[in-house]
Amino acid sequence: MERKFFEQKGRWWAAAILGVTLILFSVTAYAAAIIEGERMTPVPGKEGMVVTSHFLATETALEVLQKGGNAIDAAVTAAFSLAVIQPRSGNIGGGGFMLISSEKRNDVIAIDYREKAPSQASVDMFLNQEGKADSEVSRYSHLAAGVPGTVAGLAMALAEYGTISLQEAVSPAIRLAEEGFIVTPRFSDGLKEKEKILKRWDSTRKIFYKVDGSYYEPGDLFVQKDLAATLRRIAENGVQEFYEGKTAALLVAEMAKHGGLITLADMQNYTPVIRMPVHGTYRGYDIYSMPPPSSGGVHLVQILNILEGYPIPDHGHNSAKTIHLMAEAMKLAYADRSFHLGDEDFVKVPLKRLVSREYATSLRQRIDPEKATPSSTISPGKLNPCESNETTHFSIVDKFGNAVSNTYTINFSYGSGIVVEGAGFLLNNEMDDFSAKPGVPNAYGLIGGEANRIEPNKRMLSSMSPTIVKQGERNYLVTGSPGGSRIITTTLQVIMNVIDHGLNVQSSVTAPRIHHQWLPDELRIEEGLSPDTIKILQNNGHNVKQEAAMGAIQSVLIKNGMMYGAADPRRSTALAAGL
Ligand code: DON
Fold this sequence. Notes:
There is one protein chain. By secondary structure, this protein is α+β, with helices and mostly antiparallel strands. The strands form four sheets. It has a seven-stranded antiparallel beta sheet with strand order 1-18-17-13-12-9-8. α3 packs antiparallel against α4 and α7 (166-179) packs antiparallel against α11 (225-237). It is globular and about 60 Å long. The chain binds 6-diazenyl-5-OXO-L-norleucine (DON).
């Protein structure tokens, strides 16, 4: 194995990457150990901090900061790099959300580059002849794809808030696609796991498997010529290349050939939107997170509002009492999600009421402090609506007072599994995030209602919650996670771990997590809770289920002039690195 590794064409690459990574790891880990004096330590920096789910993206973004670029430049560079090195979630064929905080302007804005339903989409497009929702079609066919927003969103971020050109931001990605990178065990395992779906389409099979159908193994060099050419065209011709140029033509031809709905007009008409983040406060800190079409910010603030009424710090971290109260608050919020949330450009969301303290107080009265309330007896709050399985997150902070919190996705790992022939990138299957039929759960078990029904040009409801916590005018915590329905609760727990329990940011990210989403009525936990805690929760009526790890939250905490980066150990390739 070792010999094979060093006989690869890309051995210098491998050596260089390994070398740089090891140096980064050892220098930062050593410094961190000294500063914090404990084992689970964050990575410190003074002039900039990058935390992503892939060390190569961390590296390309850090280089941008090193050369004097700002956090937005670094974020766009990281996003394009991830589209090459982490195709299971990094993308140009999907969409996402970016929160940008500027201390100088003292504002936080949100860029919504979520995919949109094609103009020919219809409410019952995923129902079969018996009127049942057909998840095979909503997840794995060309109909599964929404009009991609990533390229437009990243270009907008750069044009409005960046300092470097699109060409500069895309260039490391072009290099990684053209010259290739060394396959990691995680990359290889992912492609083995999803072989059945990815080998369905010729265009996908020939990119992700060798000519004889065999696997790329750790140590192999992985080159993507078509993707490199697409990225080069974007770098040379700008954002319109993706939405009107050759790339758009290839995507539209792919759709026409296989019964998809996205037309050239859909591509030309796609525009990202700058929105005002949802704002709330928690024990004196300001919380900014993603507004609709994400449900993330609304329910994050709603759950925090409910929990603020309890002495959580006294109850202690991951004690049965704390977990009980969190689970009860989560149930109420997810019940509201199922009914009230959708794209605000199409439906009225009772946003102000959902994030109000008054509403949280009324919800708190429905919580029994000792006993679990069965989900079957909980229903969404009656609010006046007329009141006005892979994603990736990264957090970046610069020395100019900017912070970027970005989550983007193609929905599942490798999205729909369909590569656009000739363009080398995967299409999302985000249409599955709409409710195909009211009351029928999506892939994450989330129930949706009329507010999230399919309509032409509408954005499908999301849970992605890129979040920035401020202390006065200063950025304090930059965080966010993948994990479908678990994104909101994962983000919640890191905020609580820092604010309520005083854990350092790495311990906050690493600590075992819990999740409840109303339906199914189960309290999902990660490995690591004590057996006696589990026993108390069961005795209190919780249906406790230990399942796989949840989320991958990449976070930065800024304190006393230092930046502390914490990569989530749930992703083997994740890396925090600072300047
Ligand atoms: O927008 C959403 O909420 C989902 N499409 C996100 C999917 C996801 O996080 C999968 N990752 N593990």
